[in-house]
């Protein structure tokens, strides 16, 4: 009985409302343990938005392995970019779930996800199409280089391209969700943040690249893993590592506290 009775009904010291947050891995595990249900639901929905472009990329890779053909590359890049556009607003919706979890804000999953998806639909689709255009170009170039006499320099440049794109995206998507700025300012902010906070942006990007590369290597046999944790695990880890720079730059926590206090004051005034 002791295993199942954790004695939560016994009086104890509790946790002070002003207790400092945990840090490092303890904080990561705390958030994941608390919000894994929301993360999993967001992963399933968002991964379905990713599947069309991933299927196109997978079929194109198989075709190119048997018959290198630039026409196939061109068609795959164009079609993949168009189908991948929907992944942009889906990423924004998933990021909205992450941001609420990171600032310990209560999250009504469906309301939050649908609201962020709808509000970021147009520019999210544009970002999604551009992102997949760039990534598919890198992917097919890598495959064609491997089939030829690829030099270490060329492969290194491809990896650097992917790394820089990933570092920029880590800061770009949260700004789309949080800030009412035009895309030029969001993009320039992303470049400044990724370079100004390299000790955080670099490991965050490397973790994402490694985890996504492992899934790509074993695709499609680990499709259930992709549907359940394949997106939220790398993306949330990246958001977790870069949340502090975002908060320092845009005062996320301060704005949230002010808004919450204002809503509480309005509620109290209505009760009088």
Estimate the global geometry from the Cα principal axes: elongated
Distance between the termini: 48 Å
**Strand-pairing-aware structural class:** mainly alpha
Order of helices and strands: HHHHHHHHHHH
Question: Whole-number radius of gyration?
Answer: 21 Å
**Average predicted local confidence, pLDDT:** 88
Give the number of DSSP strands: 0
Helix content: over 70%
- SS strand fraction: under 5%
Number of helices: 11
Largest sheet: none
**Unreliably modeled segments:** 1-15
Give the helices and strands, then pairings.
Blueprint: H1 24-66, H2 70-84, H3 87-102, H4 109-119, H5 121-147, H6 152-178, H7 183-196, H8 198-217, H9 223-230, H10 232-250, H11 252-271
Helix pairs in contact: 1-2, 1-3, 1-5, 1-9, 2-5, 3-4, 3-5, 3-6, 3-10, 5-6, 6-7, 6-8, 7-8, 8-10
Question: How would you summarize what this structure contains?
Answer:
The protein has 272 residues and is mostly helical.
Q: Explain this structure to me?
A:
This protein has 272 residues and is mainly alpha-helical. 81% of the residues lie in helices and 0% in strands. It has helices spanning 24-66, 70-84, 87-102, 109-119, 121-147, 152-178, 183-196, 198-217, 223-230, 232-250, 252-271.
Q: Can you tag this structure with a few keywords?
A:
272 residues; disordered N terminus
């Amino acid at each position: 009985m002791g295993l199942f009775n954790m004695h939560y009904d016994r009086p104890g010291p509790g946790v002070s409302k002003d207790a400092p947050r945990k840090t490092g891995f303890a904080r990561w595990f705390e958030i994941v343990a608390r919000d894994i249900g929301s993360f999993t639901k967001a992963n399933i929905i968002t991964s379905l938005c990713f599947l069309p472009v991933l299927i196109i990329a997978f079929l194109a890779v198989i075709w190119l392995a048997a018959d290198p053909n630039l026409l196939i590359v061109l068609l795959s890049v164009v079609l993949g970019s168009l189908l991948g556009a929907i992944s942009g607003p889906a990423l924004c919706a998933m990021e909205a779930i992450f941001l609420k979890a990171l600032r310990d804000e209560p999250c009504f999953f469906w309301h939050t996800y649908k609201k962020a998806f709808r509000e970021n639909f147009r520019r999210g689709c544009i970002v999604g199409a551009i992102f997949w255009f760039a990534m598919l170009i890198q992917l097919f170039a890598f495959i064609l280089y491997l089939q030829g006499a690829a030099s270490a320099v060329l492969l290194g440049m491809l990896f650097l391209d992917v790394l820089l794109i990933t570092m920029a995206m880590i800061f770009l998507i949260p700004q789309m969700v949080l800030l009412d700025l035009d895309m030029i300012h969001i993009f320039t902010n992303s470049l400044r943040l990724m370079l100004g906070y390299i000790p955080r942006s670099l490991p965050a990007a490397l973790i994402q690249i490694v985890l996504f590369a492992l899934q790509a290597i074993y695709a499609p046999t680990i499709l259930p893993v992709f549907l359940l944790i394949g997106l939220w695990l790398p993306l949330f880890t990246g958001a977790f590592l870069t949340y502090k720079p975002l908060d320092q730059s845009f005062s996320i926590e301060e704005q949230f506290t002010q808004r919450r206090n204002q809503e509480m004051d309005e509620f109290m005034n209505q009760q009088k």
